[in-house]
Amino acid sequence: MNVCIIGAGASGLVSAIAAARSGALVTVYEHKESAANKILITGNGKCNFTNFFMKADRFHSSSDNKKWIEGILERFGNADCTCFFESLGIKTRERKGGIYPYSDTAESVKSALLLELRRLQVKVIYNCGKISVSDGGIVNGTEYDRVILACGGMSAKKTGSDGSGYEILRKLGVSLTPLYPALTPLVLKEDLSGIKGVRCEASLALFDEKGNIVDDSYGELQPYESGLSGICAMDISSSACRILGRGRRAFVEADLLPIFSDDEFKREIVSRSERFPDRNLSELLNGLFPKKLINYLVHPIDTRKPGFEDLLVANVKHHRFELSDAMVSDFSRSQTVAGGVPISAVDANCGLIEHERIYVVGELLDVDGVCGGYNLHFAFATGYIAGDCG
Ligand SMILES: Cc1cc2nc3c(=O)[nH]c(=O)nc-3n(C[C@H](O)[C@H](O)[C@H](O)COP(=O)(O)OP(=O)(O)OC[C@H]3O[C@@H](n4cnc5c(N)ncnc54)[C@H](O)[C@@H]3O)c2cc1C
User: d(Cα 111, Cα 376) in Å, to the nearest integer?
Assistant: First the structure.
């Protein structure tokens, strides 16, 4: 069996290993001068490569059908991923469910993959130039039994995923779902310069213009001048882009003190005002939020008016922001891409249903995960399944 893989990133390298381990002769084409450039910048250089809580509901797709994703995760779950890397000499460590190499360096993951490629005598052609792929498994005029497109999307373009994979797919006649940045900061209509740099725990709910909750998240929130960053914001960004991309309005409601219910927070304020009668409202909130955030939350509230506590509860527990459609086309800060090859276009092994011998893996597929090792896992899982020729 002759297998050709386009792209030596996360999914392509694992495809190559799975194919070669199952007896195939493997050639990998990579248009950069080196492999796995994106892996090196994952997890702040520590590479959070899978998650203990690997579930289909941690992924977004244009398709509501989660069965396909469930099928992939059943065949290559978090234990399979960990075992795979252990088989390459990577000892692992866990933090809040996220699995990392024990060395805490992405470099060791890249090296482990390349050392296995060397052992399996996989041929990697770097600086390969523009690749032509046509039906029947033809790459640059040579026929292969299996061609695996593993080009990544168009996040972190300097690492090599420059969107040329989509061009290959379009030339083959594959229709793509709209492409949006995912795991990217939320851009707001409101200016948040006043609370720039603050970090707090929050939960977010994403609403469409009809008031339906479309997505939600929990985690660290980091406001910046033009919006909201941090895991909590990034996790709902692909759903937000999907709404805004259709020309609709989208809103985020932030709960900036998720440890309390509305009533509990109100009681906390009453109790604090009894314990500290000499304090003003800002001073009463001291210890619950960073100072900059207290100023921002309290500033619009007139404590002389009756019912100001309700206003405070609304401001803290149901703080509403409107999203700007400026985020829809800005891939410069995104960690992955939403949209791509619809999962209805591939079979359970990631083979294109309408294009014999051609497979699509990783970020090119219309599946994006939340933060925490889900996207690398998806790249490795689809790569492994498509590459395994056994
Ligand atoms: C800053 C950052 C941090 C991240 N952190 C994490 C994390 O901690 N955990 C996590 O799970 N995910 C993380 N991700 C996401 C994760 O890196 C990607 O989801 C994953 O790398 C996608 O794998 P892939 O194989 O589809 O694409 P890539 O890893 O991007 O690989 C694609 C490869 O194909 C090559 N290529 C592209 N086009 C062509 C072509 N036409 N011809 C030949 N070669 C081509 C590219 O040069 C590249 O080598 C992060 C992403 C970023 C940007």
Answer: 16
| Residue boundaries of the structural domains of the chain | 2-180+336-387, 185-330
348 CA → ligand 1 middle, Å: 22
Q: State the pLDDT at residue 61.
A: 97
Is 80 exceeded by the pLDDT of residue 336?
yes
Residue nearest to atom 24 of ligand 1 (CA): 152
Residue 363 in this model has a pLDDT that exceeds 80: yes
> Which residues line ligand 1 at a C-beta cut-off of 6 Å?
6-12, 29-32, 37-38, 41-43, 48, 128, 131, 150-152, 155-156, 159-161, 164-165, 335-336, 362-363, 373-376, 379
DSSP 152: -
Using the atom order of ligand 1, give the atom closest to the CA of residue 8. 49
284 in Cβ contact with 298 (< 8 Å): no
| Pair of tokens at residue 278 | 């000499």
Write the residue with the smallest CA distance to atom 45 of ligand 1: 7
At residue 300, does pLDDT exceed 90? Answer: no
Please state the atom number of ligand 1 nearest to the C-alpha of residue 369.
11
pLDDT score of 177 more than 80: yes
Nearest atom in ligand 1 to 47's CA:
8
Q: Is 342 left (phi over 0), alpha (psi -120 to 50) or beta?
A: beta
- Domain 2-180+336-387 fold is FAD/NAD(P)-binding domain (3.50.50)
CA of 167, closest atom in ligand 1:
41
CB 227 within 8 A of CB 185: yes
Give pTM, 2 decimals. Answer: 0.96
* Cα 96 to ligand 1 centroid, rounded to whole Å: 23
Query: Buried b / exposed e across 93-108, counting CB within 10 Å, b at 16+?
Result: eeeeebbbbebebbeb
